[in-house]
Amino acid sequence: MDKHTTYKWWKEAVGYQIYPKTFYDANHDGHGDIQGIIEKLPYFQALGIDFLWICPFFDSPLDDNGYDVRDYYKVHENFGSMQDIKTLITTAKKYNIRIIVDLVLNHTSDEHAWFMDVKNNPDSKYRDYYIIQKANQKMPPNNWGSFFGGSAWEKLNDDEYYLKIFSKKMPDLNWANKELRSALYQIALWWLELGVDGFRIDAIAHIAKDTTYENSTLKSETMFVSDWSKFSNLPQVHAYIREFHEEVLAPNDAFAVGEVGGDPSIEDVLKYCAFDRKELDVTFTFDHMWCNNIDTATSLANLKTNVQELKEKLEYWQVSLIKRAWYPLYWNNHDFNRVVSNYGSQKYPQQSAKALATLMYGMWGTMFIYQGEEIGMENYPFTSIDQFEDVQAKGQYAATPTSQKEAFLKKLIMTSRDNVRTAMQWDDTTNAGFSPVKTDILIHPKYKEINVQQQMQDPNSVWQYYKKIIKLKKSNKTFIYGDIVFKDVIDEQVIQYERFDDTNHYLIIVNLGEYECVIEIPKVISIVLTNTSVTAICETTLTLAAYDSYILKIK
Ligand code: NOJ
């Protein structure tokens, strides 16, 4: 049987990621909530969304905005109650919208009952739920660095440290302990029982660690080394995920998308989600997110997309994985800066937002749209370190030597995750329609110009363009299952690829540059979608203005 075309609801579905804190404040306390998501269900229906991935809303001290879970069975009061979640699940079903929960299983909060017991009781039965090692002459057990800056270890007491590859308030769990694994599976099963359709599984690539705990030998200028190989994509991860699949996913036919960081190769990824692996359905990887000069650029004005590199990355993953595994298509999530700011144009932001949508969503795979992407929201104009809220930004800034802080701040302004965590721009009223009361959430100053209400009324808006591309994707199987072939990049700015099957043949053309260029094209049967005002093409040459894009039927 052809596993590529075997029907699974999530292959043909369009997902939308919600960062609940900044999405919509229904109860008017200045903070986004679950009721806010319920109120916006008709909005998702209008756009054509089939499932929602909601970032963590569990009880938490919110050190990392909910990725530090204190109680997996409780909703944080800022977001509402368990009853609200139940209402969301049942009401969403009426709109044919499924709910995907963000499951954080690599770590808990240090305020979770298990870890509290470990801290307070030397004989705690939960000690082995975490990774605790002897101090090395009063120093951390080894030189491993944390994703959030500094050491990957934090002091538990005078003689011991616990592993925390993210923040010190997020102790890593010890998946080698079977009892712990069972407790985690119970959590997942409980949520499935409640009615969710699956999970986005956080940091899944890191659940197995190098248990020799030997120092990293990578060269480093800092005392603690950013050597992700010590806790990323290790062989043991797969034994754990298979068990999770067998005990949790398979019996419930639940959808699972794993976040796979740590620079995985195609072979690594196939181990997680090849059709016959019985592990995950899809994995998020990040290769295509860094194809510009963001490491050296000092501001958005001199940020430049390397179009050749971007095309190569997209081609590599699309062509290597097709017919072997399924793929998630995304430009944005809650951990990156806004795609319009990253790869789009300062001069033509809305046009470039549409071009980027054409490029990404014309490919094969499940669409994941991040809140605000569908209206072309942009990075926040940060000016000082005090405006940042993210524990990662603050941790990395603190770990940066004083002489480099200024340069680091410039980088942070462009790259920080806080750029995508500003209030959703609903309309041009107070706080962009996110909340009518005073709020701590940042409101982008451009909200009067860029907002949902205005864009739903404007036939040429980014929102309308997203709606069209979603409709196209859902009404035409060639865009879901069809093959893909990329062409050479033209003038370092035009990406082209073809999508085809026995019935249809399409050419997708995207100009990711600000210069006009003329390209040769085959005979065009019809224009399926474009962000230009062109209505017919009779020639075999096509003039592309800045960020023009087309989906053309060519056979
Ligand atoms: C990945 C999540 O996407 C990110 O937001 C979080 O900070 C880390 N995992 C830790 O949970």
From TrEMBL:
Keywords: Glycosidase, Hydrolase. Residues 17-421 form the Glycosyl hydrolase family 13 catalytic domain. It comes from the Bacteria. GO terms for molecular function: alpha-amylase activity. CDD domains: AmyAc_SI_OligoGlu_DGase (cd11333). InterPro entries: GH, GH13_cat_dom, Glyco_hydro_b, O16G_dom_2. One of its GO terms (biological process) is oligosaccharide catabolic process. Belongs to the glycosyl hydrolase 13 family. PANTHER family: ALPHA-AMYLASE FAMILY MEMBER, NEUTRAL AND BASIC AMINO ACID TRANSPORT PROTEIN RBAT. This is Oligo-1,6-glucosidase. It comes from Breznakia blatticola.
